[in-house]
Every structure is written in structure tokens, then in C-alpha cells.
User: What shape does this take?
Amino acid sequence: MGWAAGGTGRNVALIDTDAASGVADSAIEPAVVPLAQLGAAIAEREAGTPRPRWVWSDTEHWYPELLAAGIRIERCHDLRLCHAILHGSVLAAPATLHQGGVESSTWDATNLPAPNAPPPPPHAAAALFDLDDLAPVAAAVEASGDGIDGSEGRAASGAVGSSQASAQREGDPADAHESFAEWHRQMAASTGVPGADRLKLLLAAESAGALIAAEMRAGGLPWRAEVHEQILSDVLGPRPQPGALPERMERAAALTRAALGEPGLHLDSQPRLLRALHRNGVFVESTNRWLLREHTHPAIEPLLEYKKLSRLLSANGWAWLEEWVHDGRFRPTFVPGGVVTGRWASSGGGALQIPKQLRAAVVADPGWALIIADVAQLEPRVLAAMARDRSMAKAGNGTDLYAGIVASGAVDTREHAKLAVLGAMYGATTGESGRLVPQLRRVFPDAMKLVDDAARAGERGDTVTTWLGRSSPPPSPRWHEAQAAATQPDADTADERRARQAARDRGRFTRNFVVQGTAAEWSLCWMADLRLRLDQLGTVGAASGAPRSGAAFSQRPHLAFFLHDEIIVHTPLERVDAAATAVREAAASAGRLLFGGFPVDFPLELRVGHSSDEL
DNA sequence: AGCTGGATTGGG
DNA sequence: AGAACCCAATCCAGCT
Assistant: This one.
């Protein structure tokens, strides 16, 4: 069975996508469930076999409340994220989604054309994570008026009463029918095209990522506030009164001001600080740490100390702790697909920039452990697999790809191997890295051809596409203007220089895009696969007490953190070994999902322990 | 008062 | 040390 859900009012409409398949949209009558009973309705269908794939407008909108009620779902299709992928992808059949003038990369139901794509063939939504998943569920939650009872099969249209409800119906992207129609369009766009399998895998992985992001926020990263506070007081001094600076900062500031002979100097103002430095004979262009370090004035050392402490205080000080850590959990907001390449972004809490200094605050609960796993040299391994470069893949057999590259004879030291590989992926042209790249090109021509081709495509203004089908954005109008200006008869050397510069910049972007984006896809598959494996390990002990926030994770191993190529799993001690095995197996599985039988290793550095500091 | 862009520093 | 790619968060300056 399958269900679509949508809506933001007091009632939620569910469409059985199997029953509705082949039925004209106007004839589809959603089952209406009061919003308060949505959790129970979903939980009931999740308990069945096979479990449905929920199709909904936006995981971020629907899932947190379900999680708070202790309800998890196994799989979904996130229309917003998938629309963004399909809208930009050169692999997707364009007409189905682009028709009607949808320009925004964000799915906006108010701009969508009337559904005109034929209903997908039965089971079209079966995704690669479960080829036997023949039961997509579209869940459309629909705003409607008062007095609707929840009997299945009842027409939602009869429920529209108040003008407020009508207004919500008109423009609500979560509307059941809109969701159902958009789902049809997305299936049409991703079915029967070359590369459909990859695209479907990407849509499934992206949607799983949306579930994981919500679950990680709900589950949280175990964070000991008292350990964090101890670090702060050790480094900054005791917590100051509001408005006052911590002792150590105050001292560093005073020493700096004294050395500069300006007792009233405001150190946080770059222009004023710069002028003061100049007056003291320190002729730096900026207050950048590396520039300052080259000078020997007595103000430099305390100033650098002040800047370091200031950073800790403002980014991860007591205020951060109070805002982001509650009940022993750090709950950042992860933003799947938030970066053009497909990497995740974060919003609030600075989840992607936790300084290593504070890692000691990440401590497992009593009776629990942390599993911290990261992939060694993920991006070059992904590159080797994409390019089917067997020599480079072979260099990555074992644990250290850079050592393997040295063994291949391309370069002489591990440090040079690292510089050469990073230079190849980032497009270095100068410096030591730039000089080493040609040596790599000689030994790994296939891998280098892939990134070089991507760079040339970008320089031409073409889009490039990741392994699973996420395409780079096209060049901006400004970019085209710069290129056009350089080809005019009256173009001067400055025009030409600008155009060449813009082309090269874009070439470096597309060069990196294919590798970074495919690495992000590997990580998504790793996590999505791991999530299902961890769920199969089941809960431990007896669930006790009433459901509370986070109850969905209270007794089971769960993903607690993700950062590009690293994950942290928080697990009951009884499940440590099984969870660690799952982490490894999921990595191997991700490699097979993306690259089939191509012989490429993705070795994990995997540590198990109580505190992330000791690991 | 609120926005934008620059500078800086943390992460991969 | 960095460079070269992708970011977020903070503070400040300068603008409307």
C-alpha cells in the first residue's frame, strides 16, 4: 500500500497512491484524519508489512512532531528536496517538471502546472534501498474545516468550510492533491530516462537524509555541559558578569593596549586596530593571524591570544552552551542538500564547525558508547571509482591512499601525494601543489582526465553532473556577460582578463563539484544504509515511562552526528559490536550501491569509546 | 533600525 | 603557511 500526505490545518488528508494510481486526479478522495491522530494513523501503517514509503511535501515540516511523539517512519519521498534535484538534473526528463514555468529550484506548489503527467506505472517508486518496496505512500496533509470525521475514503472536499481553511487549501504546498500530483511529475521525470536507476537512488538517499537530519536533531549529540564549562574556565577564566570580559581575555587586551600605547583601544574593530598597529610601526595590510605572526612587536603575542580567546567566547562560549545544549544534548539543525554540491549545511548551532578543542564535551550516556567513524581520503577514492581508474583504486587498497600513491612511484613522499591529490581536485595551478599535479597526471591519467574534463566543461559554461545525477547550477548572467564582453570587437585586455578569470574560477568549481558532490552521495548512501541496519538491531531493555521528547531513540543505537565524511553513533553498550559492524557493512554497501563491483575500498577509521576526546 | 559586505576563524 | 574547492557564524562598518 502507498500513501501521500499533506496539509497544515487541523486535518490531514492521506491518499492511497496504489488505489489512486490510474485514477483521474479529480476523482481522488483522500482519507481525512484529524491532525492529532496523524501519528497514530502513520504508526498503524508503519506496523504493517511491507512498510509504506511516505510521500510528503517536506520532511522538515512533518517529521519533527512525529518524532517528538515517539513515532519513526522507515522511508519517505521528500518532494521539496527531490524537486530541487530533478529540476536541476540533466538526467531528468525536463518537460515534466519544467512545464508551467517553474523556475525556482524550490518546489512551490502555487506555481506548479496542473497535473498532466500520466500516472506512473505500478511500483514505479520502488527505490534501490528496497527493491521489493512496491508500496509508495503519499501522505498529503490537508487543511480543512471543522467537523470532519476521520473515516477512511471520505471526500475531503466536503470538509472545506471556513475561508481561512480555503485560503490554506489554495496555496498550501503540503496540500494532498498537490503532493500527489507533484509526486506523479517527479516519477515521470525520473522514470525511463538514461540513468534512471542512479537518479532514483539519489532521490531515495536524499529523502533518507532528510529523515536522518530530523532524527539526529531529535536524538541529539550527547554533550556534557560541565565538561564544556570546565574547558571554558580553564581557557578563558571563570564565567564573567554579563557585559564583562573573561579574566584571560581582559588580561590579553590590557597587555595589547599597553604595548600599543593606547589604553582606550577597541580591539574588536579591525579599522581602529589596524591604524593603531600602523602607528606602532607594524605595517600589516590586515589583522589576519598569519600576517601578524611575521612581526615581532610586543603587542602581537597578546593580540593573537586575545583573538583566539575572543573566538572561543563568541562562537562556543557560555551563551552558545545555554542556547544549544539542553538536557545533555546538543541539537543542531542540519540542512540536507543545503550546499550546491549536495553536501549538508547547518543553520544555527554551528554544527559543522565544532572546534576540536571542545570534542571532550562529547561523552556517551552511562551504559552507552560512542562509535566515531570517518572515511580515510573519501574524495580521491570516489574520484578513482568514478573514473574507473584501476591504478588509483589500487593505490587506495588498504588504509592509506597517499602511501599507495607513493608506492605507485607518482611522487616521492606521502606529503607530496596529499598535496598533489588535493591540487588535482581543487584545481591548483601554482605553488608546490600545482607543480606536483602533472606527476599525478602521468600515473593516473584516467582519474585526472575526469577532473580535467569537468574543469573544461565549466570553463565553457556547461553544467557538470555527479555520479548519481545532481547537476551543477548553470553560470550566472554575470558570468555570461563577462564572456560576451571579451568577444566584442571593442574588448580591451581588462575585459579579456576578467572573462578568463571567471572561466577559470568556474572550471575549478565544476572540477571540484563532481568529486565533492559524488562524495556527498556516497556519504548519504552510507548513512541511509546504516540507519536501516541500526533499526534492525532493535531496542534494548524495556521501554519505561510515558513517551517524551527523544523517546524514539531512548533504547536503540542511533546516528548522533554527521560531518561530510564522519559519523557518530550513540549506542547502548549491549549493541556496540553489532552497531560497529553495521557501520562497516554500510560503508561497503554504499560503495557497491554507487560503483557496483568496481574494486575500490572505502576504509573506515573507526573508534569506540565513552568520550570522543579519548578516541 | 535593518540590511549588506568585508574580515576573520572554525569545519570538511 | 598557504594555495585551490565547499561552507557557517560572528562582529563591525557603512549604507539606506
Observations:
- Residues 98-174, 543-549 of chain A have pLDDT under 50 and may be disordered.
- Chain A has four domains: 4-219, 226-321, 332-378+520-614, 379-517.
- The CA atoms of residues 31 and 151 of chain A lie 7 Å apart.
- Chain A has 23 helices and 15 strands.
